[in-house]
């Protein structure tokens, strides 16, 4: 039996690719700050941004500007960052409500998978960041890890002082779009949810590659408490407008989540 059904999952809108478009020409537009305001006005409950080490999209100066918008709307800011002590001071200065530790390689076009916590070096670095974050903030500032739905990795993660795991849904999303079987992914996600609750955690998030269509089965099964979606939103906004896309997506998430 499922331990829970997430009937009111949160939509986090990732606005990185607004900054990608800006950086392509080195202009001052389009503005991630404006994108954040539009998304929150349209019903998003969280803004997600990834400050990469190579600064390919979000820049240091975007952090306080986007934070000011989330504060204005009393919404959450989720800052994705590499498992690196070089990035940690930026997180401390910004004080987002969430940080999500993600793997990062300079040569990748986008994040290709979850953290490999079976690697001792990676595990120890993530462990240090988790403890440092928790020692700095006692309440109101939480931490998640971006992981594959792999039992061995999840068990290692859940022994750390974290508040949630975010499951990498990239491969699931690809299979869905190709109309290939997805049952194995859904089973793995259910197992991940079981593990999270068995270890006393209350949140399990999902992100990467999701669209308005591929998110629907996950919502209907009540698998996750939060969905972070970016590339599809910004891409579809070219045709329909950002506010319209966020409203439609949020409606799907809220209506299909009803048990």
For the structure shown, list the relevant keywords:
259 residues, alpha/beta, TIM Barrel, 8 strands, globular
Secondary structure elements and pairings:
Blueprint: E1 10-14, H1 16-25, H2 32-41, E2 46-50, H3 62-72, E3 76-82, H4 88-94, E4 98-102, H5 120-136, E5 142-147, H6 151-157, E6 164-168, H7 170-177, H8 183-198, E7 203-207, H9 215-220, E8 226-229, H10 231-240, H11 242-256
Parallel strand pairs: 1-2, 1-8, 2-3, 3-4, 4-5, 5-6, 6-7, 7-8
Helix pairs in contact: 2-3, 2-11, 10-11
Characterization of the model:
The chain is an alpha/beta fold and 259 residues long. The protein has one domain (10-252): TIM Barrel, CATH 3.20.20.70. Helix content is 45%, strand content 16%. The protein has eleven helices and eight strands. The chain has helices at 16-25, 32-41, 62-72, 88-94, 120-136, 151-157, 170-177, 183-198, 215-220, 231-240, 242-256; strands at 10-14, 46-50, 76-82, 98-102, 142-147, 164-168, 203-207, 226-229. An eight-stranded parallel beta barrel has the order 1-2-3-4-5-6-7-8, surrounded by seven helices. Helix 2 (32-41) runs parallel beside helix 3, helix 2 packs across helix 11 and helix 10 packs across helix 11. The longest helix is centred in the middle third of the chain and has 17 residues, at 120-136. It is globular, with a radius of gyration of 17 Å. The mean pLDDT is 94.
